[in-house]
Hints:
The protein is of the alpha/beta class and about 325 residues long. The protein has a domain of about 220 residues: Rossmann fold. About 45% of the residues lie in helices and about 20% in strands. The chain contains twelve helices and 14 strands. The strands form four sheets. Strands 3-2-1-4-5-7-11 form a seven-stranded parallel sheet, with helices on both faces. Helix 4 runs parallel beside helix 5, helix 8 packs across helix 12 and helix 9 packs antiparallel against helix 10. The site of NADP nicotinamide-adenine-dinucleotide phosphate has 27 residues, from helix 1, helix 4 and strand 8.
Amino acid sequence: MAVLVTGASGFVGGAVCRALVASGEGVRALARSDAAAETVAALGARPVRGSLEDPGSLVEAARGVEVVYHVAGRNEPCPRDLAGLYRANVAGAVAVVEAAARAGARRVVLTSSAAAIGEPRGSVATEETVPVGFPSHYARSKYLGERAAFETAARFGIELVAVLPSSVQGPGRATGSARLFRLAASRRRLVVPDTAFGIVDVDDCARGHLLAARRGGAGRRYLLSGATVTAAEAVRLVAEALGRTVEVRAVGRRLLRLAVPVAAVLPGDLVCPDTLRTLAHGHRFDARRSREELGLDYTPVAETVARTVRWLRSTGAL
Length: 318
Ligand SMILES: NC(=O)c1ccc[n+]([C@@H]2O[C@H](COP(=O)([O-])OP(=O)(O)OC[C@H]3O[C@@H](n4cnc5c(N)ncnc54)[C@H](OP(=O)(O)O)[C@@H]3O)[C@@H](O)[C@H]2O)c1
């Protein structure tokens, strides 16, 4: 039977789509524009026109499909349209799960986020950590979306497995952290926040999705995170892959907190109160469940960084 992927024209969904095509699955991909349809067709999937806002199109897209990979969502660190963010990540997830059930699919694999855990600052988060709060609207929207998706799945009697990737890195990511690669390529000294975050290679993330479909327990969530690095370590890894030396200094959390009101009036989509709060919070994840239950093994971070550098060079971005 075929599978359906939403968000296949994006970074994570594209990798999931490629992995599914490579494994021999008949892949349909939801596309809401001609450009998205072209992108997914180039990956080897069959484009199906529709969007998260059009429930009828979702049911049609999922008809005759066994597994729906719901990857589509708004991944915005500094959202300007908050209502749109929550609509896509919460109502969109509910709409896809309901449509999959109505169309007769067996299972939905939902791309949630490690940010949806909401762990206390300084702790090592697992899938069972009780949420205490969220440093960003993005994180809150992903938490609410995942929770609503599980409630909808229970109501409609369809299997749901959630995967929770940490920061997805690798070839294909031209925004966000790609800026760090460009900075490390051009500066001799860098000041970075004293923070830590989880990283998962984009190909590991895609394999995690396929393994969740095959081996994941219905109703379970799986963190996908290969390693934890500090921002300073990340710069050093990038510099090493570039074959250069960058002097790194880390600024403390207190300074980040003080900068929050200033960030509120800055233009741009990367520095805003939500990103500073996220950096001041930091994240450490324990993804043991994905190794033990899904059998997922992770690429060493240095290899992911080296591959990304090669890709950025090939695109002329470095
Ligand atoms: N990147 C990460 O580090 C990371 C980490 C954890 C979780 N995630 C999650 O992974 C998912 C994908 O993120 P990404 O980084 O790959 O983002 P991305 O590159 O911006 O891709 C987003 C995808 O969602 C589609 N989409 C958005 N709104 C839609 C709508 N209303 N109807 C139909 N399709 C819609 C986009 O379609 P168009 O091409 O038409 O815009 C695109 O295919 C998100 O749910 C995000 O929360 C990402």
